[in-house]
Amino acid sequence: MPMSLSNRYDFVLLFEVKDGNPNGDPDAGNLPRLDAETGHGLVTDVSLKRKVRNFVGLVKGDAPRFDIFVREKSVLNRQIERAYEKSGKVQAAMEAWKNWQKDKRNNPKPDRHYEDIARDWMCDNFFDVRAFGAVMSTGDEDAESKLKKTAGQVRGPIQLTFARSVDPIVSQEHSITRMAVTNEKDLEKERTMGRKHTVPYGLYVAHGFVSSFLAKQTGFSQDDLELLWQALGQMFEHDRSAARGEMATRGLYVFKHDSELGNAPAHVLFERIRVQKNTEIPRSFADYAVKMDDTAMPTGVTVSKLF
């Protein structure tokens, strides 16, 4: 049986982008996301979770317990229905609920709602559900009973913030030309012009939190946590594209608490990771100095640099 978590964790993730767009904003013509007031670059938590999901799917494949609920082009209702098709416990619970709905006088009310049992099945089989949580109350109705095939909602133990660049970023626009054409009738036309937006260089910082209390509710284990650390450290290595340029994890600092409630506020711990610029216009990670203050740590807290 997987070992459950008994500690709170807080972590700091540093990653860089060079000559790429780390997270385009569809509301702004796919320009790199930024804080309009300060000019600092932003990468959403959703974007980072997508990369973790892709990495786990790549590493684990079809291994039990490590399927991915929110994957590209997946139909979520179909994913939810799998709990009703493959789990005998869920099927039995739904039948019991059907019988009770039909005749409440002669049938005992089930101890647990079938939706709760389906939620347990989803947590046990999908890594991202037990890690990040999910809204799974969108299932289709059972044709016979009119009961909805849902798995409720799950609040995940892993939470990530937006990543923010250490310094303001500059978004550069590049014109590109396509030399080929799609149809013969376009041979004599001028070649298609396009636009590409890149950040020359940006160092981004994101914060994350791990709740052992929520981990126990979803079944997120110590092995799952080790896989999460691996994903955060290596996810950019397997997410290459021309649009994103060169991206890499440059630091993963994990604060481990001796207790489940925690031994110090997260913001106090995050302030111990200090990033300083060594040059006016940074163009590489070497232009920054990252310092981890591990002196006089709060009692019951240890810090480790995993990447």
What secondary-structure arrangement, pairings included, does this model have?
Layout: E1 9-20, E2 24-25, E3 31-32, E4 40-43, H1 45-60, H2 76-86, H3 88-102, H4 114-125, H5 127-132, E5 133-136, E6 152-155, E7 158-160, E8 163-168, E9 172-177, E10 193-210, H6 212-218, H7 222-234, E11 246-257, H8 266-270, E12 273-277, E13 288-292, E14 301-305
Helix pairs in contact: 1-7, 2-3, 3-4
* Shape, per Cα inertia axes: flat
Question: How would you state the average pLDDT, rounded?
Answer: 93
Note the run of SSEs as H and E.
EEEEHHHHHEEEEEEHHEHEEE
Largest sheet: 8 strands, antiparallel
Q: What multimeric state do the chains show?
A: single chain
> Which parts are unreliable, with pLDDT below 50 for 5 consecutive residues or more?
none
Structural class determined from secondary elements: alpha+beta
H/I helix tally:
8
Alpha-carbon distance between the two ends: 28 Å
Question: Approximately what portion of the residues adopt beta-strand conformation?
Answer: 25-35%
Q: Helix coverage percent of residues?
A: 25-40%
